Amino acid sequence: MSRRRSHERRKRPKPHRISRFARRHRVFVVLPTSASQNSQPAAVHTLDDAAIFAIFDEVNAADIWTARLGAKNCHAQEVCELARMVASDHEQVQQMMRDLARKLAITPVPPDSDSNAQDHAKAIALLQDKSGADFDRAYLLHEIEFHSAAVKAVKQTLLPTIQNAEFKALVQNVLPGFEHHLAETAEVAHKLGYK
Q1: Is residue 140 part of a domain?
Q2: Does residue 1 lie within any of the structural domains?
Q3: What is the pLDDT of residues 47-67, one digit of tens each?
Q4: Domain total for the chain?
Q5: Average pLDDT of 91-111?
Q6: How confident is the model at residue 121 (pLDDT cuts 50, 70, 90)?
Q7: What is the pLDDT of residues 103-119, one digit of tens each?
Q8: pLDDT of 10-58, one tens digit each?
Q9: What is the C-alpha to C-alpha distance for residues 88 and 78, in angstroms, rounded to an integer?
């Protein structure tokens, strides 16, 4: 039997396709397919609460890793402070998500064909090749793109798909934090002249 609990299989969502966010941001997020897209080959995975818990864990882990690198390699004080805040916030959210999954007896199961760790390692390697103001610029632009895509995916795909009310409420409560990270990162980038 699958690692997913039988109570999580009550209502199966429609098949999904890999989103642009997944390919570009090392997070496997899926969007519903339309009838006209069904003829195109695409990775299909049923998005359920177990998969969404896994996605959130991966998103938080990726941004914790990236933010810790940002705090270590930053040049401008504003970037250092931003990176420390982002790492701390994502550590807290990751722990809340893990605690809730444990309470609900849901084992997070990453979607099929998940290569997030390898893809994120490549992004980290690109950032590690930079230093000084070049690092700050690359880090800020990466974080703007990452959080923009994450907020969009949460609002358009993940929140509407979550079945468990307590899980949905937690995601609704942490979404403003993702939006805050995006706004703060954009503000720091603007202040430093990065577009």
Answers
A1: yes
A2: no
A3: 899 999 999 999 899 999 999
A4: 1
A5: 95
A6: confident
A7: 999 999 988 766 667 77
A8: 333 333 333 333 333 333 333 322 233 333 334 445 789 999 999 999 9
A9: 16
Query: Please, how many CA atoms are within 13 Å of residue 23, restricted to the half-sphere of its CB?
Result: 7
d(CA 62, CA 29): 14
- Residue 39: give its domain's CATH number: 1.20.1260.10
Q: Pairing between strand 30-32 and 16-18? A: antiparallel
Q: What are phi and psi of 30, to 5 degrees?
A: -120, 150
Cα–Cα dist 157/154, whole Å: 6
Backbone phi, psi, residue 31, to 5°: -120, 150
CA 153/CA 136 separation, integer angstroms:
25
Residue 105 is part of which domain span? Answer: 6-191
In a domain, 165, yes or no: yes
Residue written as token pair 């990176």: 83
Question: Are the CB atoms for 30 and 19 separated by under 8 Å?
Answer: yes
Is residue 24 in a domain? yes
Angle (CA) 181-185-143 rounded to 5° is 80
